[in-house]
Amino acid sequence: MSEFPKITAGGSLLIAWQLTDKRVVLVGGGVVAASRLVHLLCADALVTLIAPANNLSKEVTHRINEYAARITWKDALYAGPQDLEGADMVLTAIDDNEASIRIWEDAKALKIPVNVADVPPNCDFYFGSMIRRGPLQVMVSTGGKGPKLAAMLREKLEKALPPETEQAIDKVGKLRAKLRARAPGVGGKLGQERMQWMTGVCEVWSLEDLADLDEPAMDRLLDAGWENRRVPDYQTVLGTGVWWKTLQRQWKEDGVRWFAGGLLSGVLLFALKRRYIDQLNHSFRNYIIYNDTRILMLSMDWSLRTTLINSNFAHAVNRWQARASHSASFDMRGV
Ligand SMILES: C[C@@]1(CC(=O)O)C2=NC(=C\c3[nH]c(c(CCC(=O)O)c3CC(=O)O)Cc3[nH]c(c(CC(=O)O)c3CCC(=O)O)/C=C3\N/C(=C\2)[C@@H](CCC(=O)O)[C@]3(C)CC(=O)O)/[C@H]1CCC(=O)O
Ligand SMILES: NC(=O)c1ccc[n+]([C@@H]2O[C@H](COP(=O)([O-])OP(=O)(O)OC[C@H]3O[C@@H](n4cnc5c(N)ncnc54)[C@H](O)[C@@H]3O)[C@@H](O)[C@H]2O)c1
Fold it and tell me: Which residue ranges does the record assign to the Siroheme biosynthesis protein Met8 C-terminal domain (predicted)?
């Protein structure tokens, strides 16, 4: 058994190719070309699109207009190697096999990396199924074995990503830039310390904590943490503000349940009040005193109480009994 990880050969090299302002020639104007165009524009490439006007897909037409500054459109069929001059990458997505093979050969002669959609032997690199969440990009590749499965797995992974992923990455990016401003330079002891400290923050702070970082909190984290070469936790950096944050988070997570719970308790309380409290209230207010005995009368209305107090008691009780017999429950207690 080796202490080093076992190598699984036969895969692809998955890399994040930097295409900003590099020239990419894309041949074809159908739906596949449209999806290639999206990937290229997301990577800030400069695109030369070669495709005749008569078969342009709606999306490709839309992109040409939307990104006029980034896309140079040649309304023509692929003409030969001169079309590839100065390109850093070539992509084809056309329904003409022979033309595809010619483009592949021309690109090879010019040593330009090329992808011929759906023709694995004519690809220096394959596309994969992509997740894009702000700065986060995930590519699922099955090494050409099952593109549809790749797309389905991508959907599963997408659902598994925590919602604060994007923000957390953005905030870490800002924090790292601030850290570099305080401790500039490449390599050396300072570089080691910087990396150790950043690693510590990422390990100690949850994605949610990181996503919550604002400018002042970043400065406090750097003042208290980096300057002393230690990693304070979220609570320490936020101070008393942590209570407010916790409340906000719980509201975000559980707000709907809180609201429903509140509503339910309200309704329950209201019902209870009507059923018991009102009755009690009523009974305590509606007593009469007869021969020094306080007589409580439940569910007795005000008019009857007034009658009882103001008139002959026996007469009133008779009236009350008459009412009680077909309406309220009653109770008479000496208190
Ligand atoms: C991931 C994705 C990215 C993209 O292209 O942007 C992509 N194909 C996608 C969809 C897709 N492609 C096909 C189907 C039909 C169902 C099926 O066959 O499964 C579906 C499903 C659908 O359409 O839903 C047909 C197909 N594709 C290739 C062949 C040729 C062959 O296998 O020999 C054939 C058969 C043609 C035939 O039978 O005649 C070849 C390639 N397709 C690749 C990428 C590369 C390897 C990716 C990997 O390693 O997984 C590779 C090698 C080269 C390349 O094109 O770069 C995109 C999903 C985007 C998304 O939705 O997320
Ligand atoms: N990898 C994938 O995800 C995937 C999925 C489906 C299809 N495909 C393959 O990709 C290719 C394109 O698919 P599509 O659905 O976009 O096709 P499509 O028929 O919609 O479009 C083909 C485009 O290529 C253009 N074209 C044809 N010959 C040309 C040439 N010599 N020069 C310049 N432009 C030319 C046409 O004018 C048209 O705009 C097909 O070979 C298809 O099998 C790949």
Answer: 162-232
